[in-house]
Recover the amino acids of this structure.
């Protein structure tokens, strides 16, 4: 029952200040996007092996 009351209260507060809600939503979306992009780069460059046979023998 408390969860429903909390959800009603949250929705009421969001409707009273839509600018604040939009800002929070934007910051959250940017944070999740940046984290996903960073993990994708790290996974691609550092964690996944190179697509060459005997890639461990390649020299820079």
């Amino acid at each position: 029952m408390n969860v429903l009351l909390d959800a009603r209260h949250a929705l009421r507060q969001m409707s009273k200040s839509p600018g604040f809600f939009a800002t929070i939503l934007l910051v959250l979306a940017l944070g999740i996007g940046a984290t996903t992009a960073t993990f994708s780069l790290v996974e691609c460059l550092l964690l996944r092996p190179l697509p060459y046979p005997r890639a461990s023998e390649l020299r820079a």
Observations:
- The chain has one domain: 2-47.
